Amino acid sequence: MNKFWNWVRNEDTGSAELIFNGPISEDTWFGDEITPAMFRNELSKVSGDLTVWLNSPGGDVFAASQIYTMLRNHKGKVTVKIDGIAASAASVVAMAGDETLIAPTGMLMIHNPSTVAFGNKEAMQKAIELLDEVKESIINAYEEKSGLSRSKIARMMDEETWLNAKKAQSLGLVDGILFASGQPQPKPEEDEPDEDEDDDDKTKDEDAGTDTPVDPPAEEDPDEEGKLKRRRKTDDKAMSYSAVAAMTSLMERISEKYTSAKGVPIDQLEKRLNLLK
Questions:
Q1: CA separation, residue 196 to residues 92, 158, 199, 200, 202 (Å)
Q2: β-strand pairing of 107-110 with 176-177
Q3: Contact in structure between 64 and 89 (CB atoms under 8 Å)
Q4: Would you say the pTM of this structure is higher than 0.70?
Q5: CA atoms within 13 Å, Cβ hemisphere of 1
Q6: Cα–Cα–Cα angle for 231, 92, 233, nearest 5°?
Q7: Which of 30, 86, 134, 164 is most buried by its number of CB atoms within 10 A?
Q8: For 4-33, how does the pLDDT look when each residue is reduced to its tens digit (9 = 90+)?
Q9: Under 8 Å CB-to-CB from 245, ≥6 apart: which residues?
Q10: pLDDT attached to residue 228
Q11: Do 172 and 182 form a contact (C-beta atoms < 8 A)?
């Protein structure tokens, strides 16, 4: 049995607990991946309630879709507990829980799907269209779980959004925080109004002949603008909705934080290490 994937039966509750720890892939190459075939085989051993302990950087979006569907189709109650990270495609698996909980130290990340393509102009256009459709399919899972608008979810994916436990709960992407029973929980965030809605409100005020005070536009924070631009960088080396994208993003953030510190920047160290290979 794969050492990153096993299941145990909780004698106290009588429910089964699946340990889901590793990247998601259609096939196994390094022995630590979770594949749909492997998942189906293990899930067939469970007939009642199921708890899935999830810690995964993501991987193949279609394999994740299969696992998501298997969990949604399971007859017993499915509880997903994010004890580490549910990033990229693994965040889609997390949406399959009838109840999804996250550790206080856990993280959830959503971003746009990416892929590697080659060929002529028509092939590139088809790849773009495929990525657009994949994004819409992913939004379906987030929308059903959270109730957020598709436009807001799309913006969060565009900006590659990392969420701590409280933020994930406030957005409705998880139902609760582990070990936090009895404590006040944050209220769900209200969705931001679309631009069209703002225009409609403005037109109504003008038609009514009322003078609606308009607040002066807030000055843009140059630091925040810089952060937003960095978040929107694309990773052309990543496979669809992959673990590579999640780890690359995390390393970029670490690099940005410590480049100004004394010593050799991370990117320079990587170049030196490559020379030694």
A1: 29, 20, 5, 6, 10
A2: unpaired
A3: yes
A4: no
A5: 12
A6: 15
A7: 86
A8: 445 555 555 567 999 999 999 998 777 788
A9: 58, 88, 111, 114, 235, 238
A10: 44
A11: no
110: tokens are: 């959503």
Structural tokens at position 61: 């979006």
So what's the pLDDT on residue 111? Answer: 97
For residue 150 the two structure tokens come to 């598709």
User: Are the C-beta atoms of residues 24 and 67 closer than 8 Å to each other?
Assistant: yes
What are the C-alpha distances in Å from 31 to residues 34, 40, 214, 230?
9, 17, 60, 34
Q: Which DSSP state fits 24?
A: B
The segments of the chain whose pLDDT lies below 70 read 1-14, 181-267, 269-270, 272-273, 276-277
Cα distances (angstroms) measured from residue 79 to each of 2, 34, 71, 143, 161? 22, 18, 10, 18, 24
* Residue 157 near residue 171 (C-beta atoms within 8 A): no
- pLDDT tens digit string along 103-143? 999 999 999 999 888 999 999 999 999 999 999 999 999 99
The region that residue 140 occupies, defined by phi over 0 for left and psi between -120 and 50 for alpha, beta otherwise, is alpha
Return d(Cα 189, Cα 177) in angstroms, integer: 16
Q: Encoding tokens for residue 68?
A: 């998501």
Token representation of residue 249 = 């993003």
End-to-end CA distance of the chain, in Å? 34
221 is written with which tokens?
Answer: 């924070």
